[in-house]
Specification:
single chain; mainly alpha; hpI Integrase, Chain A; 3 domains; three-stranded antiparallel sheet; 16 helices; 11% strand
């Protein structure tokens, strides 16, 4: 036998504000205080029907241990953003999270779920969101966005959006933030149990970064050196084809081309024997090469240098191989010839003939790779200047350097080393994986 409901007058009251014909209701839930809701109608009977529905939903939510008031996803998300800012102020979160996570939540999470009640969001909704997010910049709302505004060092900047599918790591990172938001909603009593976030990033192809095998690097160096001398010294000259299908032969390198190729060769050698990132290479000044001036004029065996690396939002000191030192000497000489003076500490290491910082050698590097027939690795992945850093790390692992030392010297994490170079590390312990008892 069901329990009779209390009369309407004890469940809720209808009223109209002064000067308005719209009906509203108010009622109380034990432990949650008084709740007021607009019924958005002038009709008394319709107002009563809507009031009954709202009251039933509110009491049911209260019995389930939830807030009687319906909370929209947007409202809860903004409350979560406010919590993030407070945690940043208390040093419980990194400062960059206080900038990146609110922007992510507003653009993507609120952009999709909007004013929907947070407690009706299901696993199906989250799966649909994941697909919407993957195509946001290519087919969704993002295709109409011309630029993204952001702040750096107190300055407001803008950049064009990258119109592509988010990377696997980005999808997983955003899923972590969304999961934290829903769990916080549970703690606040807005949800009973958070839906399972089944935003499974699609398995990617082999993402090991393109490097060089030792014989490939030797070929790259040989090709680079051959491009520093006059082509085909027998007088036939190298054939050149222009975009308009004209052809001619070059019998002698001009000074400008020879200088550019010399700088490129020095870049290849320093990158391969130091492990610096391209940005760190471009940022180098002569003052960043510790111990270099003191060693000039001495033999290579009596010289030692350290590199102050700056780039990718971090800095540190790198210890290069001594094989990199002669190529710093080459760059020093080129600077002296071009500027008619010795470089000072603030002058860039990789400089043009006018002493200006070179910001990229990507095009020249690609041409060198093509000349050596090394533009792509065995998987068909295009090599870039970053491949020199990967060659350095791979060689260090192969020849027994401790992974912790490599990570510190390259200003990266053990996780990144394991993720991208785990196969190399495995090859180092091949003998341990084939103990004597297994050998025929």
């Amino acid at each position: 036998m069901s329990t009779p409901l209390p009369p309407q007058s004890e469940r809720y009251r209808l009223f109209q504000r002064e000067g308005s014909t719209r009906w509203q209701m108010r009622f109380s839930i034990r432990g949650q205080g008084q709740i007021k809701r607009s019924l958005d109608t002038d009709d008394r009977l319709e107002a009563e029907r809507r009031a009954e529905t709202i009251w039933y939903e509110a009491t049911y939510r209260a019995k389930q241990g939830l807030s009687a008031k319906v909370h929209t996803f947007e409202a809860v998300a903004e409350e979560f953003i406010a919590l993030i800012h407070r945690e940043v102020a208390r040093n419980e979160r990194r400062a960059d999270q206080g900038r990146s996570e609110p922007a992510m939540i507003r653009r993507f999470f609120i952009g999709y779920f909007g004013t929907r009640p947070i407690d009706v969001i299901s696993e199906t909704d989250l799966e649909r969101y994941a697909e919407w997010r993957r195509t946001y910049w290519t087919e969704g709302p993002g295709k109409l966005i011309t630029h993204i505004e952001y702040e750096r060092a107190g300055r407001k900047l803008r950049r064009p959006p990258k119109r592509s599918t988010p990377t696997i790591s980005r999808q997983r990172g955003e899923a972590v933030v969304l999961r934290a938001l829903l769990r916080q909603a549970v703690r606040w009593g807005y949800l009973k149990t958070p839906p399972e976030i089944a935003i499974k990033a699609r398995r990617s192809q082999d993402n090991r970064r393109p490097s060089f095998e030792p014989h490939e690097f030797a070929k790259l160096v040989e090709t680079s050196l051959s491009r520093l001398v006059d082509p085909n010294m027998d007088g036939t000259g190298a054939e050149v084809r222009s975009s308009d299908k004209r052809r001619w032969r070059i019998k002698r390198l001009d000074d400008h081309t020879r200088r550019d190729r010399t700088v490129l060769h020095a870049y290849v050698m320093i990158g391969a024997f130091s492990g610096l990132r391209p940005t760190e290479m471009y940022n180098l000044t002569w003052g960043d090469i510790l111990g270099y001036r003191a060693g000039r004029g001495k033999g290579i065996a009596q010289r030692d240098i350290r590199l102050k690396a700056r780039g990718k939002g971090m800095s540190g000191t790198a210890i290069p191989h001594t094989a990199a030192i002669p190529w710093f000497d080459t760059l020093w000489i080129l600077f002296e010839r071009g500027m008619q003076r010795e470089p000072v500490d603030v002058d860039p290491v990789f400089a043009s003939d006018q002493g200006k910082r070179i910001n990229s050698i990507a095009n020249g590097f690609t041409e060198l790779l093509k000349a050596a027939d090394l533009e792509r690795d065995h998987r068909g992945i295009k090599r870039t200047p970053y491949s020199l850093r990967h060659f350095y790390i791979t060689q260090q692992l192969t020849h027994g350097a401790e992974v912790t030392d490599i990570a510190r010297n390259c200003r990266t994490s053990l996780a990144m080393i394991d993720k991208h170079y785990g196969q190399v590390r495995l090859e180092r312990v091949v003998d341990r994986l084939r103990p004597e008892w297994t050998r025929a």
